[in-house]
Amino acid sequence: MSIQAVVWDVDDTLFDYTTADRLGMRAHLMTEGLLDDYDTVDQALARWREITDLQWARFAAGEATFEAQRRDRVRVFLGRELTDAEADAWFQRYRAHYEEVWTLFPDVLPVLDALATSHRHAVLSNSSIHVQDHKLRVLGVHDRFESILCAAELGLSKPEAGAFLAACTALDLPPHQVAYVGDHPEIDGRGAADAGLLSVWIDRGGMYATIEPPVGPHRIASLAELPSLLGPDSRFGAPSTFR
Q1: Range 172-186 burial, b when 16+ CB lie within 10 A, else e
Q2: pLDDT in tens, 100-158
């Protein structure tokens, strides 16, 4: 098997979304004077994440548009009715704090540099092109990817096989010549494997260490392990320590 291209998830794979969301929301809640509504900061952040996950599930199931799920996150979190303009304004104030703490994981640029000449690169994200295009530009890696596909525009979301196959089509490659790297064991790991790609599940910090790994994905703890999985053309890489 010769892997010609790597398709990447963005949030919590390339971009440290969890940390940025936590720090950005904390700063936003302090500015908005909303922390008094909760016993602790962590409680407020857990509530925001819970609502985000529930509203995102509605979007993934086709029950809400990308914009509607985002507005409803704000309405549910605040517990009051808001116009679309009011919800958008609140979210934009949060987003300003959120963007201030955007960062790549430290292993991202080294692996992209190492694979720059040996493999082609693309992105497949369960987000919107507006969000991820902007994010990748701010993070300075947009030009590393020849194709950026997102669920909102595709009309398909991971773990549907069609989403992964759309990324392969954009690269004009069969699935068995494409690797997919993502952080979620089911949405990314099992989804890519079931679609016929070489599935690489990155479990940073052993977040999912206690679960039984899904059948199919290669499990890694750092992107430094990735090149050795992709074949002899890669210029560096540590052997996998948990696969």
Answers
A1: ebebebbbbbbbbbe
A2: 999 999 999 999 999 999 999 999 999 999 999 999 999 999 999 999 999 999 999 99
Structure tokens at 89: 């304004």
Q: Strand 5-8 vs strand 120-125: parallel, antiparallel, or unpaired?
A: parallel
Looking at the structure, do residues 109 and 204 belong to the same domain, yes or no? yes
Residues 164 and 171: beta-carbon distance below 8 Å: no
Whole-Å CA distances, 77 to 37, 44, 56, 82, 198: 11, 9, 14, 11, 39
What does the pLDDT look like over 156-191, one tens digit per residue?
A: 999 999 999 999 999 999 999 999 999 999 999 999
Residue 153 falls within a domain, yes or no?
A: yes
Residues in contact with 220: Cβ distance below 8 Å, sequence separation at least 6, in sequence order: 200, 201, 202, 203, 226, 229, 240, 241, 242, 243
Same domain? 129 vs 202: yes
